[in-house]
Amino acid sequence: MGIQPVNLPSRSDEIPSELGGLRMTKQRKEVYGVLLDQRDHPTAQDVFLRAKERMPSISLATVYNCLEALVGHELVKQVNFDRSPSRYCPNLEEHVHFQDEATGQIHDVVFKEGVRLEDFLDLPQGVEVRELELTLKGIMPGSN
Ligand SMILES: [Zn+2]
Question: What InterPro entries does this protein's entry cite (predicted)?
Fold first, then answer.
Protein backbone atom coordinates (compact mmCIF):
# COMPACT_ATOMS: atom_id res chain seq x y z
CA MET A 1 0.00 0.00 0.00
CA GLY A 2 2.13 2.88 -1.23
CA ILE A 3 5.86 3.34 -0.90
CA GLN A 4 7.02 4.26 2.55
CA PRO A 5 10.14 6.38 2.21
CA VAL A 6 12.60 5.79 5.01
CA ASN A 7 13.42 8.43 7.58
CA LEU A 8 10.51 10.72 6.95
CA PRO A 9 10.81 13.98 8.79
CA SER A 10 8.24 14.68 11.48
CA ARG A 11 8.77 18.44 11.67
CA SER A 12 9.46 21.22 9.19
CA ASP A 13 13.01 21.81 10.46
CA GLU A 14 13.93 18.18 9.71
CA ILE A 15 13.18 18.28 5.98
CA PRO A 16 16.22 17.20 3.95
CA SER A 17 17.14 18.62 0.54
CA GLU A 18 15.87 15.48 -1.17
CA LEU A 19 13.06 13.19 -0.15
CA GLY A 20 11.68 10.10 -1.84
CA GLY A 21 13.38 11.13 -5.09
CA LEU A 22 11.93 14.64 -4.94
CA ARG A 23 14.28 17.61 -4.72
CA MET A 24 13.01 19.72 -1.87
CA THR A 25 13.13 23.28 -3.12
CA LYS A 26 12.57 26.16 -0.70
CA GLN A 27 8.92 26.31 -1.69
CA ARG A 28 8.35 22.57 -1.40
CA LYS A 29 9.99 22.58 2.01
CA GLU A 30 7.71 25.39 3.08
CA VAL A 31 4.54 23.65 1.86
CA TYR A 32 5.57 20.28 3.27
CA GLY A 33 6.55 21.98 6.53
CA VAL A 34 3.10 23.54 6.85
CA LEU A 35 1.57 20.06 6.57
CA LEU A 36 3.98 18.51 9.05
CA ASP A 37 3.63 21.23 11.65
CA GLN A 38 -0.15 21.38 11.83
CA ARG A 39 -1.78 18.08 10.99
CA ASP A 40 -5.36 19.15 10.66
CA HIS A 41 -5.81 18.14 7.01
CA PRO A 42 -5.80 21.62 5.51
CA THR A 43 -7.07 22.50 2.04
CA ALA A 44 -4.68 24.01 -0.54
CA GLN A 45 -6.09 27.42 0.37
CA ASP A 46 -5.31 26.83 4.07
CA VAL A 47 -1.79 25.69 3.18
CA PHE A 48 -1.33 28.80 1.05
CA LEU A 49 -2.36 31.14 3.89
CA ARG A 50 -0.03 29.40 6.36
CA ALA A 51 2.91 29.23 3.94
CA LYS A 52 2.48 32.92 3.13
CA GLU A 53 3.09 33.83 6.78
CA ARG A 54 6.58 32.39 6.53
CA MET A 55 7.21 33.02 2.84
CA PRO A 56 5.22 36.10 1.75
CA SER A 57 6.27 35.77 -1.91
CA ILE A 58 4.72 32.31 -2.38
CA SER A 59 1.72 32.15 -4.74
CA LEU A 60 -1.33 29.91 -4.67
CA ALA A 61 -0.26 28.39 -7.99
CA THR A 62 3.12 27.49 -6.49
CA VAL A 63 1.41 25.93 -3.50
CA TYR A 64 -0.73 23.80 -5.85
CA ASN A 65 2.38 22.76 -7.79
CA CYS A 66 4.22 21.83 -4.61
CA LEU A 67 1.26 19.84 -3.29
CA GLU A 68 0.99 18.02 -6.61
CA ALA A 69 4.69 17.11 -6.51
CA LEU A 70 4.46 15.94 -2.89
CA VAL A 71 1.37 13.83 -3.65
CA GLY A 72 2.98 12.49 -6.86
CA HIS A 73 6.00 11.31 -4.87
CA GLU A 74 3.76 9.76 -2.21
CA LEU A 75 5.04 12.00 0.53
CA VAL A 76 1.60 13.42 1.18
CA LYS A 77 -1.86 11.95 0.77
CA GLN A 78 -4.61 13.81 -0.99
CA VAL A 79 -7.87 13.25 0.82
CA ASN A 80 -11.27 13.92 -0.68
CA PHE A 81 -14.44 14.29 1.31
CA ASP A 82 -17.68 14.50 -0.62
CA ARG A 83 -17.42 17.41 -3.01
CA SER A 84 -15.44 19.70 -0.75
CA PRO A 85 -11.94 20.82 -1.78
CA SER A 86 -9.15 18.25 -1.39
CA ARG A 87 -7.30 18.16 1.87
CA TYR A 88 -3.74 17.09 2.49
CA CYS A 89 -2.33 14.65 5.01
CA PRO A 90 1.37 13.93 5.65
CA ASN A 91 0.58 10.81 7.68
CA LEU A 92 1.67 7.85 5.53
CA GLU A 93 0.89 5.26 8.16
CA GLU A 94 -2.13 3.15 7.33
CA HIS A 95 -5.07 5.09 8.70
CA VAL A 96 -8.63 6.16 8.04
CA HIS A 97 -10.27 9.52 8.60
CA PHE A 98 -12.97 10.46 11.04
CA GLN A 99 -14.82 13.68 10.38
CA ASP A 100 -16.52 15.34 13.29
CA GLU A 101 -19.86 16.50 11.92
CA ALA A 102 -20.15 19.22 14.55
CA THR A 103 -16.86 20.97 13.83
CA GLY A 104 -15.88 19.60 10.41
CA GLN A 105 -12.51 18.63 11.87
CA ILE A 106 -10.81 15.56 10.47
CA HIS A 107 -8.95 13.18 12.70
CA ASP A 108 -6.57 10.36 11.80
CA VAL A 109 -7.68 7.01 13.16
CA VAL A 110 -5.43 3.94 13.10
CA PHE A 111 -6.35 0.28 13.30
CA LYS A 112 -6.19 -1.38 16.68
CA GLU A 113 -2.97 -3.27 17.04
CA GLY A 114 -2.93 -6.57 15.21
CA VAL A 115 -6.18 -5.92 13.36
CA ARG A 116 -6.08 -6.29 9.59
CA LEU A 117 -8.64 -5.36 6.94
CA GLU A 118 -9.31 -9.05 6.32
CA ASP A 119 -10.40 -9.42 9.94
CA PHE A 120 -13.48 -7.27 9.56
CA LEU A 121 -14.09 -6.99 5.82
CA ASP A 122 -15.51 -9.89 3.87
CA LEU A 123 -13.00 -9.56 1.05
CA PRO A 124 -13.13 -11.98 -1.89
CA GLN A 125 -10.54 -14.74 -1.66
CA GLY A 126 -7.09 -13.73 -2.86
CA VAL A 127 -7.80 -10.02 -3.15
CA GLU A 128 -4.78 -7.80 -2.75
CA VAL A 129 -5.67 -4.42 -1.33
CA ARG A 130 -3.40 -1.68 -2.65
CA GLU A 131 -5.01 1.43 -1.32
CA LEU A 132 -7.16 2.26 1.64
CA GLU A 133 -9.53 5.19 1.66
CA LEU A 134 -12.13 5.16 4.36
CA THR A 135 -13.95 8.09 5.87
CA LEU A 136 -16.09 7.89 8.94
CA LYS A 137 -18.44 10.64 10.04
CA GLY A 138 -19.92 11.16 13.41
CA ILE A 139 -19.84 13.13 16.60
CA MET A 140 -16.74 13.49 18.72
CA PRO A 141 -17.42 13.72 22.45
CA GLY A 142 -16.73 17.18 23.75
CA SER A 143 -17.37 19.01 20.48
CA ASN A 144 -20.53 21.04 20.24
ZN1 LIG B 1 -4.89 11.70 7.62
Answer: FUR, WH-like_DNA-bd_sf, WH_DNA-bd_sf
User: pTM for the complete prediction?
Assistant: 0.85
95-142 tens-digit pLDDT: 999 999 999 899 999 999 998 888 889 999 999 888 888 889 999 998
What's the gap in Å between 35 CA and the centre of ligand 1? 11
CA nearest to 39, candidates 71, 14, 11:
11
Q: How far is the CA of 108 from the centre of ligand 1 (A)?
A: 5
Fold of 12-89: Arc Repressor Mutant, subunit A (1.10.10)
Query: Domain coordinates of the chain in residue numbers?
Result: 12-89, 96-138
Write out the residues surrounding ion ligand 1, Cβ under 5 A: 89, 91, 108
User: How far, in Å, CA of 50 to CA of 73, rounded?
Assistant: 22
For residue 133, give the nearest of 79, 69, 89 by alpha carbon: 79
Q: Ligand 1 centre and the CA of 106: distance in Å? A: 8
